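Anyone have tokens for VCBS repeat-containing protein? Sequence:
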Amino acid sequence: MGNLPGRKRGRALSRLATAAIAAALLGTTAGTAVADGTTPPATPTTQKAAGAGVLTQAAPRTAAAQPTVAAPVFPLTTVDRSGTVYMYKSNGKGAFGDRSNPLITGWQVMAGATRVDHNQDGYVDGLYSQSKSGTLYFNKGVDEQTVTIGGGWDIYDRVFSPGNLGGAGESDLLARDKSGVLWIYLAHPDGTLSDRYRVGPGWDIYTDIAGRGDLNGDGKADMVAKDKSGVLWFYKGTGDYKDPFESRVKVGPGWDIYDTLLSIGDMDSDGRSDMLARDKSGVLWFYKGNGNQNDPFENRVRIGGGWDQYVSMF
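Reply: yep, here.
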């Protein structure tokens, strides 16, 4: 890359990390990210939505609903304490095959990532990555240009996608700001995003929010949230971006034994989304989805121990 000034060099390193991450996580030829702890400065937030600036012309978002795959099939990605990234593929029976070889290093420049299925065929086709300084990127793969969505995303402590929330087909993003307000960004087919829409305040009562696809069998993306007392709540998706969730339904207490909840979609090939939970001793558990919003999961099944070696899983 040659000798670059500090700010430009930081941006180049972050883009290189993003491209390598996208290549690995989307199943293309993996490179190794170069990381020295330098990250690009965040773009100042404007009066518009944080992260609303885009570098490409957004494709029109169609009003007509498109066919939706209720339960996508995504792999699990893990990041260890050294910043090395690995992948686990589901075996279709509620567990995983062997861990991959190290995919990339240099995760230190990134704060997180979330996969999406914009064309609704059930498989990953895009990746949103966030640098620690607050820049959000979108990438379709190693041969595609990395799109800088915008800066200012460090106002959020959680950015993720449960799937299609707005009814137009693409997988939309949810972002919780540090005051506890939840916002939704509608995605376009090219990965760019709309201005944000306010979902509502009070989401800081939750220590975990998870979901990937349909949990109750109505074809709409749902999610669950664990509050600080360990009670799990179910949020049914409406398909309306102006009011994307119905009133919460109590699933039950006792979920404070887990330090991580997440979903990667359908893990046991039954067409329903499932959930993973890691307990505080490092054991990972599989919760099979059953399509019931009042009690959406079957009894847990132990996958195995040692998962506390990872600082991030998605």
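The chain has a mean pLDDT of 81.
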